[in-house]
Amino acid sequence: MLIQRPPDLKASEITPEAVYLQRRSLMKQALALLLTPSLSQAAGWFDKDEPPSSPQKPLRYSRWPHSLQGERTTEDAVTHYNNYYEFGLGKDEPAQNARGFQTEPWSVVIEGECAHPGRYTLEDVLKGMNLEERVYRLRCVEAWSMVVPWVGFPLAALLKRVEPGSRAKYIAFETLHDPERMPGQKPGLFGLSSLDWPYREGLRVDEAMHPLTLLAVGLYGKTLSPQNGAPLRLVVPWKYGFKSIKSIVRLRLQEEPPETTWSRSAPGEYGFYANVNPEVDHPRWSQAKERRILSGSLLGVERVGTLPFNGYAEQVAGLYAGMDLRRNF
Ligand SMILES: Nc1nc2c(c(=O)[nH]1)N[C@H]1C(S)=C(S)[C@@H](COP(=O)(O)O)O[C@H]1N2
Ligand SMILES: [Mo]
Question: How much distance in Å is there from the Cα of 43 to the middle of ligand 2?
Answer without folding.
Answer: 23
